[in-house]
Amino acid sequence: MELTIITAKAGDAQLDTSSTAAKLHISGEWTLANYARLKQLTDQLAGQYDDSTQVDLNDVTRLDTAGASLLVELLGSERVSQLAETTPKLPAADRALLQTVYSSMRDFCVPVKEPEQNTGIQVLSRIGCAVDKLWQDCLQLLGFIGLILQTLTRNFFRPKQWRITPVVAHIEQIGLNAAPIVVLLTFMVGAVVAFLGATVLANFGAGIFTVDLVAFSFLREFGVLLTAILLAGRTASAFTAQIGSMKANEEIDAIRTLGLDPMDLLVLPRVLALLIALPLLTFLAMMAGILGGAMVCIVSLGISPDMFISLLHSDIGVQHFLVGMVKAPFFAFLIAAVGCLEGFKVTGSAESVGAHTTSSVVQSIFIVIVLDAVAALFFMEMGW
């Protein structure tokens, strides 16, 4: 009878066929460091023994997870479990490791691949999910607006509940600090609008109507719209980040524990501050835009300042100024509501703060533009 001996560098597996009953001797170090050679060893031994072959693990000196998985692959999980219980010389830690690997490989199953859906069904499913999310966001925003109005009404007749100091602080942060960028932007846009109007209208000999173009556009639309978009990006994101950070740090829970209402403490001062600041910034934007247009008219068209003011006085009625100003409180209220609501939606991580800050900016700008379009159609139909 012959003796087949296959050795690895640190681990051995000897298949003894010299006697009637074949015997497999496993010894040495079965560890990750020797995995490559042990893998070749187990591949070579595959098919040379069966379930009746005796296995000896008494001479195994070291064993880790990689070696145990190779033994399970070589002998089968059920047999490894039996050998772990019937090999007294094997250390208790190694026996426990074999049992653990056996249990893991016994319970393992190849994940069933989900059937692929048709591309059209996937597109419709995503559209449906987006529409459902939009509907849920609208419901949450309407509920939050109702909560703000309820809190505002409740505190209106309680002067002791008014928080003047945070309102003034937010007005400074929202209005005073944003005034330079609002004025600069609207001045430049007014100059661009006047330049384009003068270029086009001059071809028809109607360059003088550039004054009306600038005044109409900034009093009715551009002044309030540009200001609202700037504050949607600057202020709504700040509200979301501030309240979201407090939510992540569990400061809002601490406020409730102290018996205080986060709506009174955090939301109302921001809403009132924006209701005051946005109309003031809108007025500055209107004046800056008209001033930018006046500069272009004076330089390019030769219209004197006195003539510019005279045309404004004769052609532009006060209703155009009122149409622009009446939109500002509605824009301010919605921007503040969206910014605060997204802050309360933060779950507790920096990633969530960033995601909801981005969402508040996008939602605020979208709502402002849609509401402005609806208002423009309404005022046009009313003849105002």
Q: In words, what does this structure look like?
A:
This protein has 384 residues and is an alpha+beta fold. It has 13 helices and four strands. The protein has a four-stranded mixed sheet with strand order 1-2-3-4, covered by helices on one side. A hairpin with a 6-residue loop joins β2 and β3. The longest helix has 40 residues, at 262-301.
Number of helices: 13
**In order across it, which strands form the biggest sheet?**
1-2-3-4
- The backbone outline, from C-alpha atoms, is elongated
Overall pLDDT score = 81
Q: What is the structural class?
A: alpha+beta
Quick take:
73% of the residues lie in helices and 8% in strands. The protein is built from 13 helices and four strands.
Set out the fold topology:
Elements: E1 3-7, E2 11-16, E3 23-30, H1 35-45, E4 54-63, H2 65-75, H3 77-86, H4 92-107, H5 119-156, H6 164-176, H7 179-202, H8 210-248, H9 251-257, H10 262-301, H11 305-315, H12 318-344, H13 350-382
Parallel strand pairs: 3-4
Antiparallel strand pairs: 1-2, 2-3
Helix pairs in contact: 1-2, 2-3, 2-4, 3-4, 5-10, 5-12, 6-10, 7-8, 7-10, 8-10, 8-12, 8-13, 10-12, 12-13
Keywords, separated by commas or semicolons:
single chain, 384 residues, alpha+beta, 13 helices, 73% helix, disordered N terminus
